[in-house]
Amino acid sequence: MSFEQMWSDLAPIGRAASSGGYFRQPFGSAERECHAWFLEQCAARGLDVETDGNGNTVGWWRSGSGPSVLTGSHLDSVLDGGAYDGPLGVVSSLAAIDRLRERGFVPDRPIGVGAFVEEEGSRFGLACLGSQLMTGAVSSERAKELRDRDGTPLLDAMNAVGLEPDLGDSALLDGVGCFVELHVEQGRDLVDRGAAVGVASGIWPHGRYRFDFTGQANHAGTTRMEDRHDPMLTFAMTALAANKQARLGGQRATFGRVQVEPNGTNAVPAKVSAWLDARCSDEATLAALVAEIERQGSQRAERDGTSLAVSAESVSGSVAFDPALAQRLAADHAGADWPVLATQAGHDAGILSAAGILTAMLFVRNPTGVSHSPAEFAETADCLVGVDALADSLERLAGPGAPR
């Protein structure tokens, strides 16, 4: 089946008619439908499917021996997300297997196509949850505490779709020597360089932090402005401070989720909880940025008669992909090298790299640079270049003479 046909089959699943965005939340009906589609595609190619108790799945092309080469990505989305973030890597991996077989290529070592669960953290608040569970980066105690916004425990959500959660290290990674993830670029670097495909050098450190602003609920009409202890005001000024500090340092700071209590139109709020997503070029800068935002927020809270408490929900360190592998994959394609670039977005590749697996990433050009939005896009022609790029990479890693 062609890339175009597979993409067409996936396109309607979980798509909102109103916005055109996608709602493929982990262990929900749309994401499970995508997973069923993946199983069908693996079966059509004669791949040997293995699934762990948490829903991570790999279809294996059993050939040769020695350390296996894994590729793939994820099928879940952020709320009202784009079509390409995640699924492009899964579809391209299947298409790359087809391309290699069309070439008559027989790998010297097994090649797997993986689909990881809950990469976005859109339901249970922890990004790359599936791969973190696979590698043991998340403890079973913490996993058992995770709840979605409706209060559903992670384990209950897994059980509801027939999974038997296994919160230890996953056997799916046994024997994996290398992982290559293809992903749509979430920025405009490749547009500026005039290149359809690039190779990742590393991932910026990033974290998610909960800011709880507490004040005093009161009447919106009868309470004089000078008598208020309004946590919404404290939050607003903290969000402005985050924006300014990130801009000054060329970093990233975003308050993208807010929860207000009691959330009434005619009431001064009692509490505002807001989640900060912060990303920086290095770990010291990340820590300093968050500390400065917290400092300014606390100072504002003193003036407003409110209080601020900050807690880190997840923090991921910087990832430097193996430079020799990146150069090997980037070198000499039709007489030119692919560009090598850093990314500010987190990926399953970063988790596997941190677990000691040799890891690389390929990016496909995004003409708008927009991601985590219905406007996310990649031209079909560029996607097909990406398929060939991934097939070339797998051939270099699993063919005769590949490094072991």
Automatic annotation (TrEMBL):
Binds 2 Zn(2+) ions per subunit. Keywords: Hydrolase, Metal-binding, Zinc. Pfam families: Peptidase_M20. GO terms for molecular function: hydrolase activity, acting on carbon-nitrogen (but not peptide) bonds, in linear amidines; metal ion binding; N-carbamoyl-L-amino-acid hydrolase activity. Its EC number is 3.5.1.87. InterPro entries: Amidase_Cbmase, Bact_exopeptidase_dim_dom, Peptidase_M20. It comes from the Bacteria. Zn(2+) 2 binds at D85, E120, H372. It is an enzyme of class 3 (hydrolase). Gene3D superfamilies: 3.30.70.360, Zn peptidases. Allantoate binds at R208, N266, R279. Its cofactor is Zn(2+). Zn(2+) 1 binds at H74, D85, H183. Belongs to the peptidase M20 family. This is N-carbamoyl-L-amino-acid hydrolase.
